[in-house]
Fold ABC transporter domain-containing protein.
Amino acid sequence: MRDMRLSAESVTKTFGKTNRLAGKSTAVRAVDSASVHVEPGDFVAIVGESGSGKSTLARMLLGLIPADSGVVQLDGVPISAMNRRQRQQYRAAVQCVLQDPSGSLNPRKTVRTSLAEVIRFHGIAQGREAVEQKAIETLSLVGLKPETTYLDRYPHELSGGQRQRVLIARAIVPNPRIIIADEAVSALDVSVKSGILKLMNDLRVRLGIGYILITHDLPVVKKVADYVYVIKSGQVVEEGPTAQIFADPQHEYTKTLLAAAPDLDLVLADRFGE
Ligand SMILES: Nc1ncnc2c1ncn2[C@@H]1O[C@H](COP(=O)(O)OP(=O)(O)OP(=O)(O)O)[C@@H](O)[C@H]1O
């Protein structure tokens, strides 16, 4: 599959908020003329404090909610202008991995069922054996081995890190070009987090997947991202290569975010042995 570029160009999203006590409604501009882009093989981070609009931007990039203005496009084709076939391709090419590993998998479904669902949905394989073969292949890619010992397990029979690997497995089934990971590692313990980040990076190298990592965890950003967007009140206030953002932040907000972060070098040494 040829390379694809996913971009949001000047997207804005406003939510109405009703205050029943005051008897009036106000508007919250969650995302305000924000532009970001990612290509396969990139590791892009979007950082900002809670409520800055990161998840709303992610939901627009995933086509889950429409932008009020501006466009989200894949390879120059706006989502809103896509025909059925293009939409199907987009749904396969752009995947997401969400936060809270325990809540994102259906507790009543085994790993086999949960993978078979997406394999069938995307028409990757048909027939029990072919579907199982694909499930095994995918579990191998996310490092859950021996693969067959995981097929019949329920989420509660997996550790937090293993559940996160199953979620990543579901995301890579349709051979995506881009994965949007919204706080995908935030809830995990330090050593588990490091393993998942390593897996994500392996998949980038082996499969050419590009990531948009949405997080408030700056040590993680410094460790894995190549390019950073800093978002404040829905606006991208600063962007640039990771090394530049960390060494020479220009915007006051970025300086404050970095100052509020724990000593990054110490955290990195502790977490990743650097
Ligand atoms: N469906 C919605 N209806 C009303 N307001 C919303 C909705 N979704 C988000 N908002 C508001 O939009 C703003 C941005 O929220 P968003 O969840 O995108 O921020 P965030 O940076 O992802 O925050 P967090 O890191 O806490 O998840 C917030 O003020 C939020 O309350």
Notes: The domain at 6-104+177-272 is CATH 3.40.50.300 (Rossmann fold). The pocket of adenosine-5'-triphosphate is lined by residues 15, 17, 28, 30, 48, 50-56 (CB under 6 Å). The mean pLDDT is 90. The chain has one domain: 6-104+177-272.
